[in-house]
Amino acid sequence: MFINRGEYVEAPKWFRIDYDVSNKYLPEKQLLPTCQSLGEVYLRLEHYKDALIYLKKHLDLAKDATDLVEQQRASTQLGRTYHEMFLKSEDDHYSVQNAKKYFKSAMKLAQTFKENPHNNKSSFLKEYIDAHSKIGMLEVDLDNLDEALKFLAKGLEICDEEEVVEDDSGRSRLHHNLGNVYMELR
Length: 186
Prior knowledge:
Serine Threonine Protein Phosphatase 5, Tetratricopeptide repeat; 186 residues; TPR_rpt; TONSOKU
């Protein structure tokens, strides 16, 4: 509720209460959504160290639960966090390497879903498309425009293969990002 209203400063307090209660009384798998939410809100607040703590815990819990959908989601968010850290730094090669590592991990997990269809197709597909878009934009930030084009074009190819509707937000982002890359190439 607080995130939806943009009240990011208030949200961590309540997520921490949820985390503490869940950690004390519920099975570990029940911590997945709370860790994901804490990681997300700390990322939005630019508290990267805290975001990484909860997003890595989210990934570890997802691995323990062998929940591939949550592993993919956590990997994408970790990649996004490291990408944001890179953008805020002068020349942070560690963040770039980690962003690529986690985005590629998310894409690999999504490829597994594609090859072995899963009940939650829309979730994997959204994350898969987003991972291509995000790693493409990371390549733009590194001035690797040809690499960016490859990832963004592959994202659109996936949209076509999976018959993603024309007005899908992920497809739209890919078109927008491709437009930006072509503007840079002029």
